[in-house]
Automatic annotation (TrEMBL), chain A:
Upper lineage: Eukaryota, Metazoa, Chordata, Craniata, Vertebrata
Gene it is expressed from: Fancg
GO BP term, pick one: interstrand cross-link repair
Protein name per its UniProtKB record: Fanconi anemia group G protein isoform X1
Recorded GO CC terms: Fanconi anaemia nuclear complex
InterPro entries the record matches: FANCG (IPR039684), TPR-like_helical_dom_sf (IPR011990), TPR_rpt (IPR019734)
UniProtKB/TrEMBL annotation, chain B:
Name of the featured protein: LOW QUALITY PROTEIN: Fanconi anemia core complex-associated protein 100
Single GO BP term: interstrand cross-link repair
Gene: Faap100
Organism domain of life: Eukaryota
Pfam families referenced in this protein's UniProt entry, alphabetically: FANCAA (PF15146)
InterPro entries according to UniProt: Faap100
GO cellular component, one term: nucleoplasm
Taxonomic placement: Eukaryota, Metazoa, Chordata, Craniata, Vertebrata
Amino acid sequence: MSGQITSTLPQTSSSSLDLWREKNNRLVEQARQLTGDSRLSLRRQQLAQDTLEEFGELLLTLQGLPASVPALPLELTVICNYIILKASLAQGFTEDLTQDVQRGVERVLETQNQLEPKSQQGLQGLWHSVLSASSLLPELLPALHCLASLQAILWMSTDHLGDLALLLKTLNGIQTETSEDLLLLLKSWSPPAEKSDAPLILQDAEGLRDVLLTALACHQGLQELITGNLPQALSRLHEAASGVCPPSVLAQVYTALGTCQRKMGNPQRALLYLTAALKVGVTCALPLLEASRLYRQLGDTAAELESLQLLVEALSATPSSALKLHIEVELLLPQPDPSSPLYCGTQSQAKRLLASRCLQTGRAEDAAEHYLDLLAVLLGGSELRSSPPTSSPGPCIPELCLEAAAALIQAGRAPDALTVCEELLSRTSSLLPKMSLWENARKRTKELPYCPIWVSATHLLQGQAWSQLKARKEALSEFSQCLELLFRALPEDKEQGVGSNCEQKCQPDVALKQLQVATLLSRGLEWVASGQDTKALSDFLLSVQICPGNRDGSFYLLQTLKRLERRSEATAFWREAQNQQLQENATRSLPLYLETCLSWIHPPNCEAFLKEFGASLLEVS
Amino acid sequence: MAGAAAASASRVHYLSDFCCPLGGRAGAKPHVLRHQAEVFLSTGREFVYVYDQEGGVLTAVYQFPDQVWHLQLLAIRRALYVLCARTGIYCLSLDNRDRSVIQACEDKEDDTCSTPVIHVDPDACVLPNAALCAFTVLDDMLVTLVQGPTQWKMQLFERPCPGEEPGLGGQIGEVELSTCTPPGGVPGKPSAPCFLPVLSCAFPPDSGAPHGHPQGCGCFTLEEALFGLLFGADAALMQSPVVLCGLPDGQLCCVVLKALVTCGLAPGDPKALVKILHHLEEPVVFIGALRAEPHAEEEAGEPLPEENVHSDCLVALGHQGRTLAIKASWSESGNLVPDLREYCLPGPVLCAACGGDGLMYHSTPSNLCAVDLTRRDAPWNPEKPGGAAGGLPSTLCPASLNICSVVTLCVSSRAPTGGAELLALSSKGRLITCSLGLNSEVPVPPKMTMANAGQKIKELLLDIGDVSERVSFLKKAVDQRNKALTSLNEAMNVSCALLSSQEGVRPISCTIATSWSRLELRDVLMATCTLENGSSFSLDQGWTLCIQVLTSSSALDLDGAGSTFTYTIPVDRLGPGSRREVTLPLGPSESGALDLPVTMSCWLFYSLREVVGGALAPSDPLEAPYLEKLPLNLPKQDGVCLPLCKRTVDMLQCLRFPGAASQPAQAPCVPGPAREPVETFLKTCQAPGGEPAGAAASLRAKYLPPSTASIRVSAVLLRTALEGGHSGSHLCSATLQWLLAENAAVAVVRAQKLSSIQGTAPDGTDVNLIVHEVAVTDLSPAGPIQAVEIQVESSSLANMCRAHHAIIRRIQTMVTEQAAQGASPPDLRMQYLHQIHANHQELLREVQTLRDQLCTEDEVRSCSTAQKLLQVYKQLRNPSLVLL
């Protein structure tokens, strides 16, 4: 059959075949020259686009003729070049690439004269009949294997792993049900070598196979890491690291290995991997983030904060990217989503993490500075190279302002905290309920205005700041305003409540209760300081009613009762409280600003006092 | 000019003419911008014109490689950004222009054209990307919208400057919007989309922007409450500009620009970045904002400087006129809630613009309207308890400005008078300005002076010109509708006339006659339908005469159902009293067969679509692309159908009589397929060995006894029936005349008083009709009954059957007519009749069994069965029965 076609092909057409081959080679050279330059410019990209179009035209020319064996190696090579260029320009795989591959396979089948009955079988069937055909010519094999590797890559990118396994088996010539391990199958496949006079190709079958191998190992390793199958993850990731691995992917793989070792309880080995990842040198952000997690686990706060500081700096540099005109491992790896261990976020997210860790570890001055930097970038000038540190819907910046205010108060910079709070309120004033309308509405309707919870929290922090400045009157007024808002406004919108904290999710109603308790206690303490014990008493009592068994509330209530010499009431309350378990303050899941605020109210000698009080009651009775 | 504008409510000035491809090419999107005295204009072609309004001259023409889709001016940077279809974004520096103009002039010194066309240098392309569909430029950023294979992609770049080497390094962020349907056309070469997406940018107050943007550029400042309500507290806190995007699928979404900064070059998370505000369900063509409530200061009488006007109402317009308006308002309890309303304005919308004073201007092919979005009836009072505060009007009332087909608009306010001035480009390419006075009350005529009289007259003439353009457009539409109504009225009359005279003589009739004629060496049976309009109405455009020809199934083709063919002939103006003839060939077909009988039915059809559709479809080419989207869409088949007549053509009408003396010329040609004469000759010369069908027939005629059939009809019956037409003549001849009444040979029969005749069937076999009188003896006790026997003889069994069938059909009709007249049958011998009846019953039963056998048996036996069956049929055809 093929002999016939060769003979029918006139001699003159071989010269045009040569012309087309030269064109293909010229285009490949052109693309390679474009790849060389590290500067990525749009004009360069336009040139690459033009090359792609020329490849497309060449392909149309070749496919306009009936399929013939002498022309097929060139045709398949042009298809491969076209697909490689198209995928790398679009930085992804589209549906039409599959059609290009299918067209190529059909052309091969056409020369084997067996296309008609096979056309119903789908792509998998087509591949099977092409590769298992007896009439397959050896000179066709290199190009055909290259096309097959592209098919494998397309199936991997669309997660058709079953099809991929079948194709690999056919390529390896395995008929029986042997191993389903894709990695093994890939490794045992050795594409035939290209001849020296073959038309040029952008990436040969072996190169594509290596890309596929690394991507597959990397992908599987990460999956195992996420599901917690750590030894398996370790071996897969090792596999990926030992293969052909571009630096950016290698850094990711080493970081993932570090994560894996950390989770397995080997911090020293984890550190070694992270050092190796840093040495790769393309992107430092990911290993630094992982290092901060590791140091946090080890309790080395100084080292943790230092790596976070470095992370912030690392993220400020924009990654330089060169024009790549071949299929790389990155193309096959999906972008890490926020839940992935390989997600490192934006610079402002890192900055916020650093600031909040500073606040949590008692470095209030540093925390305040970091928060102020972050706010300056976000709220200030017109510079756009920063985005809010949120990845979830709902406002995040108000909370950030509150954290900043809390850090400033903690650092003893109450006036600055007041400024931050005022700025927050003034910028959002137009969104807040109109008090005048509200007053009118109160007389007529039962409907309550909706007010975001962070507005009341702002008043709480303002009160705390005034309190630090010993301005009792202002502090009391802020606390009262906060309470008025809190007892009226129920968070209608869960999304906009306190629960929108980016990292720790907590029940909005828990947060609301804790906020009410914190405000009541703060106001009570203000009353105590100004000598109005009865008013303080009612606030403390209310706090205990809202949150029965709250230790801080109970402490202040008992202390005040004792000071007022109302011993019987204290005893009654004590007995009642004894019946209920005294609760630990549930501060673990609260927003950071509230947690900080509660820590100010917490009496230092609470436990001792309660024990003593209990003992004295027992003595009396 | 400004002084004159103050005098009247609106005044139109004609500025210049530009040639426009409008309506011709899909996706053409003209634009007009004004910066101080300069007007920048694109008509939807490859050109961008710069026009000096004060001098009234065209100062520059730039030519781009493809259609210009969008223009934006960044006045503060002295740069004009142009989106060129399938190419990318170009940036032209306005400062360098003079130099390049001079250069171009030098280049083309010998050229006759007054304004040189400057070919834009490819280096001016600052962002080459063939898939770019829209952009908006801010002070330091460029936001673009790219159509990907499956999704719209919004990209954010550092603003490229004129002459800067384009680099991807400037990309700051990217996010994918909702899915889009990929455009048709060659892959890799996107075709022009029908609708382009719309981008605009909303700024929060006090953000320092948008400086340097002329009005109508799609950039506006929103008031705090509306901004925060629409885009959230984060956007309000960050005071970030927000890009609003209206997509061709109707989605209206927004992206907070400061959030559109991505990590690396990976696209941002669309869930966190893109917020869908609304879905208009038709292509979004305009997004704008306006001030619907007067500022407190303004109410006090102090006009605010323009840059301090913050819009409090966001407006989006769909192509069909669906309008969305969003305002912030306060609920009864004091909460901030969105007041969102949808309206329907007349469509299709060509362009729109927002002006001051709460007015939005929107243009359709027939009108330019000003729409007032303020709630003038109930001024908002913040302290007033109750009452929906600051709402939007419940309905919109567009006020016409009497200008039609404006394709692009630009609004600017003229400070001295306070009124607005529209700069508009009409579909014919005229650039006009329209000054809208602030006070539309009774204009005080200014004192006419010699100085301004000429100017005044010129303005009046221009006004007249514009009005006349509009009048001619409307008149054309009215004429078309009138014509359609007249036509419908006539059709109504005709239908009534035809339907009311169901029984009597119809005012519009159709008669059918058949005749043989020779066409291309072949005899063809032609049917002539004559449509005669006897009514007082005329049949006009929209009427069609339909003739359906239904052939009976061939005897040889057992399961053939016969073919139907319908001819439709448009009746083009058939006045009262006139007639129209239509001649159709009935057969024989190419294969030589003519399956008789053929039934022909005629009816009149009135197409509503043809008449009404034309009136509803606008004739303006501008609206052509929107035609199929008309809401009133008539189905293709809609119309009125009036049956006229029905006629069966049978064998007796198709017989030819070559022997008849009066038709010597009409020797029937050799029947059969129409072939080359030589071929026909050869065929006839062929030896009997390879005999063709015709030769077989003649052989059969020679050697086989002819098939016969006979019918006996009582002479009395015939005589009474034929009394009228054939009185006096011999009964046999009269019968024959009656049978061949619709045949051309009837004259010969009458003249020669023939009682038998030899004819030829359409396929060439002979058919003999013999009529003679017989006496039937044993039927009546009263003695022999005089009867007429009609005998049919033919060598072809099929033709004999057809002729027999035709005769039976005639006699059947005759007998039923006679029975209706109450003719009494003579006394008969009942037993004899019973006997005949029983015989026939027996025969019929035999036929039934034989036919059943024929179906089941093999070939050899079925042959003999068929033989038997033929015998029985023969017996049935020669009954001893007499029709009385």
